[in-house]
Input
Amino acid sequence: MKIIFSANSYVHLYKLRLEVIKRLISEGHEIIAVSGNDKYKKKIEDEGIKCLSINISPNSTNVISDFKLLIDYITTYRKIKPDIIFHSTIKPNIYGSIASRILKIKTVNNISGLGTIFFKNNFTQKIVKFLYRISQKKVEKILFQNNEDLEFFLINNFCKKNQVLRIPGSGVNTSFYKKSKNIKSKNLFSFAYIGRPVREKGVIEYIDSAKLFSNSFTGVEFKILGGFDERNSSEVTKNQLLKKIEGYSTIKIEGYQEDIREIYNRIDCLVLPSYREGLSNVIMEACSMEIPVIASNVPGCNELITNDQNGFLFEEKNVQSTFNAMTKIYNLSEKRRLQMGYNGRKKMINNYDIEIIKKIYHNIILNL
Output
């Protein structure tokens, strides 16, 4: 079969879909990646996968550019003539699905989270809801990474029950994300926030909690890791972060890291104060690397963390609650933290391994 995978960026496809794509290629399918252009296009092409770029602005709300995107999708899909299309991220899920509906191409959408637009009750949100309602009705399957998002789509009449399928996120390669046996000893207890510095990811609450903790405990450091994209209106700029952490040498901005495993091997605890996730990839990676996690008690996080087993949950947007969870982890014995890490890895292997996701995609194609 000829199959398209489409997302708003090649980096999304490379990091979250590449292993599924490679499995499908090994089964004899022809795969084409359709996405907005970025440096990861070459990485995907180096894997022997054909790429076609479209002009997509993930954070734009410009009606004209979105209409052009729809036309671009129709033109591209008509040219390729695929048998099946797999979309992920908001604009491909909406405009790619409208295009595939016009062209009568079988389509599967992956809802990896509702996006920051659903945190704001405004006119733009109403438009997005309308677009979801008209774009999802005819797709063959809609994959959801948590039950709350699934119920949200059903309650808002975006789709029907026979379309939905609950999946365990994007999966994690537990063979790749594996704790190193040659870890150097360190003097500081290390917390880390890993992800884009977006307000809805809780980066401000993380910093405020880190300040509070630094005023109370010694021998600790707080890392902030993730790339900056100032086109995102929800993003906190590097200058804003630097101003926010001024006077606190314990808090360090380390930016984007190509191989995040090196970071996991050097930290004691991952902190994710997110307001909501699809199913957090960074938590799955950390757990697979045997790192205890503290995270907000919200959809996309609370399924992955079991209190006192592989981490602790705290109240969303609550600095004191985050501080309390940090204190719990910090005060545990090393033996107890190592056990938490082991528990997390075991949970990932049993329930969220990438091989489970590969089988799901295989079965979807088989049954469409």
The longest strand covers residues 30-36. The longest helix spans residues 63-80.
